[in-house]
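New to this. Explain the following:
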Amino acid sequence: MQFTLSPAERLKSKKQIDWLFREGQSFFVYPFKVLYLMEHNSGKKHAGIMIMVSKKKFKQAVLRNRIKRRVREAFRKNKLPLNAYLEKNNKSMLLGLIYTGETILPYQETERKLILILQRLIEQDEKTVG
């Protein structure tokens, strides 16, 4: 079991980010808008994640970074079921989390919402396959 968040799991490529926004599907779980795109038969078998926080809602970089740190930590601790599902089905995923809330949620609430998002991603992919 690996609980790290490697650089390969962070979505940085402009090409992939553009592809995610153009071709990806989305849903909303307060305070996150979730963009995702499944890739079949790719070499990678994990989720690449990108976290965005609006500069308009959180003017101070310290607050934006705090939110991103909390979301990254929650993802890092709870990504194993998603990665296991992706590996089992020989898939990878591009995942974008856009924080749309007006206030900073406590870490426990952020983690609970992220677990809900990860479960929903697995369920939605199972529906499209099966």
